[in-house]
Request: fold
Amino acid sequence: MTKMSRLPSPYGDCVPDGLTSNYIYSGYRYSTEGCYRSCFQDLVVRECGCGDPRFPVLNNSMHCQVFDPEARKCLEKRTNELGNVHGSFRCRCQQPCVQSVYTVSYSAAIWPSQSLNISLGNCNKGQEECNEQYM
Reply:
């Protein structure tokens, strides 16, 4: 895990935590992907009168009903038009000021390696037997 810190205005262009409006993922940290989804949902609600059921809607909106042919047609049309909202200029989504980035690494080492020293609180066996619990 790498923790990133960016400077807000006037030094940088990031979004301070908690300073987002129309963010559909209330209770969660701001992310650029969440911003794009919020923008997409906002555009769909404005043009169709209801939101895409795949994403949350804000309190004053409702999801499109599956049995409503007009809503389904509008939703399908807007999804095709707005499908690449990331590259368009219709949404402006900045990076968050504080962000944790996780990276994955792979190893070709044999498990368990000889250098492994796991001490389990409830394991009263030898190291080899304790390591077996992780396999």
